[in-house]
Amino acid sequence: MLIAVICTDKPGALETRLANRDAHVAYLKETGAVQAGPFLNDKGEMYGSLVVLDMDSVDDAHAWAANDPYAKAGLFADVRIEEWKRVIG
Fold first, then answer.
1. Number of Cβ atoms within 10 Å of the Cβ of 1
2. Which SS3 state, helix, strand or coil, does residue 45 take?
3. Beta-bridge partners for 46
4. How far is Cα 6 from Cα 59, in angstroms, rounded to an integer?
5. Burial group, residue 62, by CB count within 10 angstroms (0-12, 13-18, 19+)
6. pLDDT at 66 exceeding the cut of 90
């Protein structure tokens, strides 16, 4: 099943994001994320993430999200994990 992981960074946490970005991108590649990318504010700065996973269960997605280097670094103020249905693409 496809699952969207929608994350919002804590205010003022851009440096935390940048310091952990390489580990996060490596994790995405190692774990087979289907789609991924940051949300950008009006200044073009990253402030959140959208990751689409292909997992057997929502519980697996929660485990994936907990092991994300960004999560381990305490970057996120909020994480939503939702089953997602692809319509286009």
1. 13
2. coil
3. 40
4. 15
5. middle
6. yes
Q: Which amino acid is at 17?
A: R
Name the pTM for this structure: 0.94
First CA to last CA distance, the chain: 15
Cα atoms found within 13 Å of the Cα of residue 7, Cβ hemisphere only: 25
| pLDDT tier for residue 60 given thresholds of 50, 70 and 90 | very high
Average pLDDT for 20-41: 97
Q: Which amino acid is at 12?
A: G
Give, in order, the Cα–Cα distances in Å from 72 to each of 25, 44, 69, 86. 14, 24, 5, 29
- Amino acid sitting at position 2: L
